[in-house]
Model the fold of this input.
Amino acid sequence: MAERFAAARTLAVVGAGPKGIAIAAKARALAAAGLGAPRVVLGATSATVTAAMADYSWQRHLISRGAYADWVDRGRLRPTHRQWSSYLREVAERADAEIVAGEVVGLDAEDSQWRLALKSGETIQADGVVLTGAGPPITVAGQPRQHPRVLDGRNYWLAEPAFGKQVAQSVCVIGSGETAASVVISLLRKSPKRSSIDVLTSRGVLYSRGESYDENRFYSEPGDWPALAESHRREFLERTDRGVFSPQAEAILNQSRGFRTLAGRAVAIEAGDSQVVVTVEYGSERERVAYDLVVVAIGFDARWFERLLGDEARRRLETALAGAGLEHRIELDLSVAGLSPPLHLPLLAGLAQGPGFPNLSCLGLLSDRILRRYVTIAEPTRTASERGALV
Ligand SMILES: Cc1cc2nc3c(=O)[nH]c(=O)nc-3n(C[C@H](O)[C@H](O)[C@H](O)COP(=O)(O)OP(=O)(O)OC[C@H]3O[C@@H](n4cnc5c(N)ncnc54)[C@H](O)[C@@H]3O)c2cc1C
Done:
């Protein structure tokens, strides 16, 4: 998706998912508020932008479908993934996002611009790039790329609709985060009564996600986040984000039988025609266990984009990092500090800028932070949430 600005600056967003759509909608709202010109004033006029954004709100989406009263009467329930996806689809249409269908296979820097190479042979020039998406699933040694008995946190959902009653009798789900939880819930619904599901966790125990106000607030208002010590930020991410099951998933799993937790780390997979053998390591012990089906849900590779980088982009990135870790060098606008042209990496912004940027917790703030780089700010008026972040 390429978003063009009145000042002829182009921001290319790789991925037309929720983040790309949110950025496109916010850019349209800026333009509708008369702020598409190079000179933009935030603060006083931000109320106009907020008003324009109401056109893309969840409430307006429900009203247009005649479902608003029902939603209120039912206690304003969280939308299901299906409802959320229908909402995003509508926002993408209303924002009239400029979508280029194609796979980006190369990204290089040329003077002050990025050059995105598409698989089709086309190229896109852009003043800035946002990389969205979770990245490709992380694999276990020996895991085949495509195998009917070995699925991952992404292709499981493509295979799931085709599962019939004969879905595997013995299944191993490797992982202990929300992706693994979603897979286990789906398998419990689909599997025959006497089937067994092992959930393999390297942490030994399946932990539930912390969801107090004090924990939740950092996801939507991360202004104070950079002021926390790094050790505390890491601990926070462990307790609320990585390798934990949500209370919603826990509520379902607490009622379910048919699955058990196994402590250990999958170190190898051997996939055959009729079974898949998983080698599990726990302390000094090693065990080989055979299953009908294995689902690997151990996370996604956030640094997948490095494979796209051309020589010049790689050189500039290395210079910008100067030996520091990438996740320490993400700035307020979610771009890599010192790298020109700007490369925005919300997926890697969790540690430095706030835990909500890699996921969908603060799409409005994410769009503001990124777009501010491409509009002229007359007065550096900051929102309360940004004041803390700019220490
Ligand atoms: C089962 C599941 C449930 C989840 N539930 C939640 C939830 O409830 N709340 C939450 O906050 N997060 C949730 N997440 C995480 C959530 O999916 C991601 O945070 C969110 O989808 C990221 O949105 P995005 O716009 O960054 O990317 P995506 O929605 O992943 O979109 C990125 C797109 O980019 C495309 N793409 C990738 N590489 C290229 C390339 N080289 N060229 C062109 N296009 C490319 C991909 O095909 C993809 O369509 C969930 C994830 C899973 C797997």
User: Anything to note?
Assistant: Residues 14-15, 17-20, 103-104, 132-134, 153, 179, 182, 359-361 surround flavin-adenine dinucleotide (CB under 6 Å). The domain at 150-296 is CATH 3.50.50.60 (FAD/NAD(P)-binding domain). The radius of gyration is 23 Å. Residues 18 and 262 are 34 Å apart (CA to CA).
